[in-house]
Write a structure and sequence with these properties.
Layout lengths: L1 E2 L21 E2 L8 E6 L14 H8 L6 E2 L4 E2 L5 E7 L6 H15 L5 E6 L5 H11 L3 E6 L18 H8 L3 E11 L6 H10 L2 E4 H7 L1 H13 L4 E7 L21 H12 L4 E7 L10 H18 L7
This protein binds manganese (II) ion.
């Protein structure tokens, strides 16, 4: 069961400026050759501060501010096929059964030649989404943009918002750590034990400082080359806490020294241009923790660039 998505009405009507909210349509099921958006308003597994259940509706609200054209990219989204499947209705306090429901829904929503974007929700939702993608692929690749490794195991016998990639590497047979990249790791935010685990597994790490020094475009290209080698499906997972606290404070664990919202947009655009990227998530936005609305704007901007990347597929602009 899903609750229909709600977008704001355009604040003005100008026939020469079609707004993005006039382009996104509701759909009851995933459409082929389209960006399909699914809300997962769940924060029952967050290790820190709650609020991510408000993420999907806050991102949609913020979409009201966008036109459909991007001067820098020379790209218009007027003809883009973008559908919103609505929000999952998740009432159970039980994490395992909630994750099962998410896995089944994501499995249904990966359509041919489409990109599914799930709006979290806490970072725990990446695990059932990866399990669903594992069943759709012979060789799965994973690109993570996050301040944290999230390579933990279960805590108290349960998955949590810091365990998604660690548990996915155990549970998803088609996910080889040699096709996993983590971008944006920085600061005093991770233990040595998990840094060692990443290295031992062969996970590629691109730190926030390396993104600043080498540029977001090159980081995204390196990451995609690594994650897609031999893969038939690549999953992109974006934890908004990768972005510096000056732009994103509305997350469970805000970080100083993170990447910028612009760098995030550049990276998700570059990665989403590739056909094999069939699913992505934007997680951890907790709008109640940022009354300025800035964090939700960063998240909505990242969604715009994911849509733009998809719309650029097959064009000469690649
Ligand atoms: Mn994180």
């Amino acid at each position: 069961m899903k609750k229909p998505a709600k977008y704001p009405a355009p604040s003005y009507l100008d026939p020469r400026d079609k707004r993005m909210v006039q382009i996104i349509k509701s759909a009851s099921g995933a459409e082929p050759k389209a960006v399909n958006i699914l809300g997962i308003p769940y924060d029952g597994a967050v290790l820190g501060r709650k609020g991510a259940a408000g993420g999907p509706s806050a991102v949609r609200e913020s979409m009201g501010s966008f036109s459909n054209y991007n001067v820098e990219l020379g790209l218009g989204l007027e003809g883009a096929r973008v559908f919103d499947l609505g929000d999952m209705v998740l009432g159970s306090p039980d994490i395992t059964s909630t994750h099962q429901a998410i896995e089944e829904e994501v499995g249904r929503d990966i359509a041919p030649s489409s990109l599914l974007v799930t709006l979290g929700g806490d970072n725990s939702i990446s695990l059932p989404a990866l399990r669903a993608c594992g069943k759709k692929s012979k060789a799965l690749g994973l690109i993570v943009i996050d301040s944290h490794f999230d390579l933990r195991g279960m805590i108290g016998g349960k998955p949590n918002s810091g365990s998604s990639y660690g548990l996915a590497l155990e549970a998803v047979e088609t996910l080889d750590p040699g096709r996993v990249v983590e971008i944006g790791i920085h600061g005093f935010l991770n233990s040595k034990s998990y840094a060692d685990k990443a290295e031992q597994l062969g996970v590629k790490v691109i730190t926030a400082e390396e993104v600043r020094k080498g540029g977001a475009l090159s980081a995204a290209r390196d990451a995609y080359a690594f994650a897609s080698a031999g893969a038939d499906l690549v999953y992109l997972s974006v934890d908004l806490d990768a972005v510096d606290i000056s732009q994103v404070s509305g997350v469970s664990a805000p970080s100083v020294g993170g990447i910028s919202g612009g760098e995030l947009s550049t990276m998700v655009y570059e990665i989403a241009k590739n056909d094999r990227v069939k699913a992505a998530d934007l997680v951890e936005l907790a709008p109640s923790l940022d009354p300025t609305g800035r964090s939700q704007r960063v998240a909505a901007t990242a969604l715009m660039y994911l849509i733009a990347g998809f719309a650029s597929r097959g064009s000469s602009r690649q």
